[in-house]
Every structure is written in C-alpha cells, then in structure tokens.
C-alpha cells in the first residue's frame, strides 16, 4: 500500500548525519516530543558534519546555526534542528558551510558542529529531522536504536496532500 502512495523517488528523506535513531517521543524537547513541530525522527550524531537530507533550496538557517530548513521542489519543508536548547549557545560550536537561499543537493554539507564543545556545555546533541508541512502522510523507515549512515539511509518518506 505505502509503495503505491510513496512512489516518487524524490519523496525520500535521508539521514543528514550518521548516528543512532531515536523516536521523537524519546527526545527532551516537548515541541518535538509532542509532534507540534512536525513528524520525523531524531538522531544522536556520530559525525561533525550535518548534511542536507533532500534536494531543494536552503530556505532558512537560524542565525545561531543550530537549525536549518530545506524546501524541496515539491514543497516539502524539512527541518533539521541540531541539539536541544542549543540556541542558547548563540552559535558557539556551530559553523555555517553554505548560505541560505541557495539550491542544494541531498548530501551537501550545511553545518559543521563541535560535538565535544556542545556536550561539554551541558547540551544534548540529539538532532530531530522533521517534515513541518501540516498536510502530509509520513512513513518512518527506521526505528529507535537503529544505526544510520549520513545520506545513505532513508529515514522517512512523505506524501504531501
């Protein structure tokens, strides 16, 4: 059934970083845990480079570089939020590798993080990856505890309504 609904290749969202998968219900942040921000998964990063999970346009990077959104050609909005409450670091530990507004490809490097610095300041590096569009169907392709490789592994598929 899902194969018929999710038949386009461009509706696959890949992991933006290698690491271990968590369900959103397992993260500390209530906005992600409750699904208010969107549907998706979270990853505990094992790498310092966060990449684009989909082809599209880099629609937004927070000035503190802790989160970015990619707008796909079909209108999907994919948010990658690096860490919990990391906005409070005011950009420390985050280096922007590309400016917003540019067309990007899946796997393109977006943000470099200093995991040790972020964690030494008491912040979690758990990274939610969600689709923020209100009208969509999502099929999660991984489960809590799975190991994923950046760009190689599909983490979810979507269909916009």
Topology pattern, helix = H, strand = E: HEEHEEEEEEEEHEEEE
Provide the spatial order of strands within the biggest beta sheet: 9-5-6-7-11-3-2-13
- CATH fold label: Glucose Permease (Domain IIA)
- What proportion of the residues form beta strands (DSSP E)? 35-45%
- Uncertain stretches: 1-9
Which architecture would the CATH scheme give at its second level?
Answer: Distorted Sandwich
Distance linking N and C termini: 16 Å
Biggest sheet details: 8 strands, antiparallel
* Overall pLDDT score: 94
CATH class: Mainly Beta
Tell me the count of domains. Answer: 1
Tally of helical runs: 3
E-strand count: 14
GO cellular component, one term: cytoplasm
Subcellular location: Cytoplasm
Keywords: Kinase, Phosphotransferase system, Sugar transport, Transferase, Transport
GO molecular function, one term: kinase activity
Question: How does this structure look, described?
Answer:
This is PTS system IIA component, Glc family. This protein has a single domain (2-160), classed as Glucose Permease (Domain IIA) (Distorted Sandwich). Helix content is 9%, strand content 39%. It has helices at residues 2-5, 30-33, 115-120, and strands spanning 12-14, 19-23, 39-45, 49-51, 56-61, 67-71, 77-81, 94-96, 103-104, 109-113, 127-131, 136-140, 147-148, 154-160. The longest helix has 6 residues, at 115-120. The two termini are 16 Å apart. Mean pLDDT is 94; it is low at 1-9.
């Amino acid at each position: 059934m899902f194969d018929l609904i999710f038949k386009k290749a461009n509706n696959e969202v890949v992991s933006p970083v290698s690491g271990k998968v968590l369900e959103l219900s397992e993260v500390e942040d209530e906005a992600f845990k409750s699904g208010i921000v969107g549907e998706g998964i979270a990853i505990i990063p094992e790498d310092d480079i966060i990449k684009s999970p989909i082809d599209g346009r880099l629609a937004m990077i927070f000035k503190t570089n802790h989160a970015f959104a990619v707008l796909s050609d079909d209108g999907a909005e994919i948010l990658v939020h690096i860490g919990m409450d990391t906005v409070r670091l005011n950009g420390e530990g985050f280096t922007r590798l590309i400016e917003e507004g540019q067309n990007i490809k899946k796997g393109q490097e977006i943000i470099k993080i200093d995991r040790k610095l972020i964690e030494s300041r008491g912040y979690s590096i758990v990274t939610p990856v969600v689709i923020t569009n209100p009208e969509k169907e999502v099929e999660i392709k991984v489960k809590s505890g799975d190991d994923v490789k950046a760009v190689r592994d599909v983490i979810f598929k979507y269909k916009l309504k």
